[in-house]
Amino acid sequence: MKRVRKKVATDRKFVVALSRGLDVLRAFHPRDGLLGNQEIAARTNLPKPTVSRLTYTLTKLGYLTQVARFEKYQLAPPAMAIGYAALANLGIRDLAEPFMRKLAQEAGADVAIGARDRLSMIYFAQSRGSSAIRTALDTGVRIPVATTAMGRAYLFSVPDYERAELMDRIKDRAGQDWLKIKAGIDRAGEAMAKYGFVISAGEWIEDIYAVGVGLRMNDGTGTYAFNCGAPAFKFSEDRLKSDVGPRLVAMVKEIEDVLNGTSILAPKPARTRRSSSGGGRVGREIEGSRQA
Questions:
Q1: CA neighbours closer than 13 Å in the CB half-sphere of residue 188
Q2: Burial 12-46 (b: 16+ CB within 10 A, else e)
Q3: Does pLDDT of 157 surpass 80?
């Protein structure tokens, strides 16, 4: 049954001031550096006088640091501590890490897991393969739901009512690009039905090809999504369908089996050997699975 969403305006328990303060903190993205009140107002759609009061308050509370010389702000350690605490409590992150690392090594690609924040997916763990995509994709980075493999995998892993709500919001944001974006999402749905994974072949970043698979947690703690991608010269669309996609599906199935208690096996640790200064050979074992 479709949930009835309360309107903020009529929800007496909803604290608008707190919501706006959190929106100000959300305005800061990785590698942003400093933001001024005008930039924050543009990102949050809040009036500049309101933003000025909020940044003043957040500075007094220690969540922002003001750089008076530039009349701008940056996130302070107490704000970052919240994010690190959240990461530490994501058991799926540690559980998935050895599986992701194994696939990244085998496919020569980058493998990541993320969760949704509004109309974006946020990376909270990543393993790099030999291709090492040279973009700013790292923990904490946001990518769009609508055009990426990870985002589309999320879309087709949530209940129908939630997907319908997200599609409405994407449509509102997309404007004149909506028909093109919807066509890509429709193709992703067809791929999911046929192959068990979605594809984004140059639809977000022109020379990046990727596949995505979602993961719904049985305990209700959330829906996550994985992707596996590399530059187009390394991953053709045919290879995505015949090799990389099935590998990602198999990886997520292994993680699900561990979560469901039907398997306790983690990937075998990879081993490399190198010569020591004395001419002998020293084995180095890469860390195996860690229990969440």
A1: 29
A2: eeeeeeeeebebbbebbeeeeeebbbebbbebbeb
A3: yes
pLDDT mean across residues, the chain = 85
Domain ranges, ordered by start, for the chain: 14-79, 89-260
Distance CA 63, CA 75 (A): 6
Q: Kindly tell me the burial class for residue 281, based on how many C-beta atoms sit within 10 Å of its own C-beta (0-12, 13-18, 19 or more).
A: exposed
- The rounded distance, in Å, linking the Cα atoms of 149 and 155 is 10
User: pLDDT digit string (tens) for 202-226?
Assistant: 999 999 999 999 999 887 778 999 9
Q: Assign domain 14-79 to its CATH architecture.
A: Orthogonal Bundle (1.10)
Give tens-digit pLDDT for 127-151: 988 755 554 567 888 999 999 999 9
Coil vs helix vs strand at 4? coil
- The CATH topology of domain 89-260 is Beta-Lactamase (3.30.450)
What size, in residues, is the chain? 292
In the block, tokens 């328990």 appear at 13
Examine domains 14-79 and 89-260 and report if their fold is the same. Answer: no
Q: Give the angle 144-150-153 at the CA atoms, nearest 5°.
A: 115
Specify the DSSP class assigned to residue 240: I
Residue with tokens 């984004």: 200
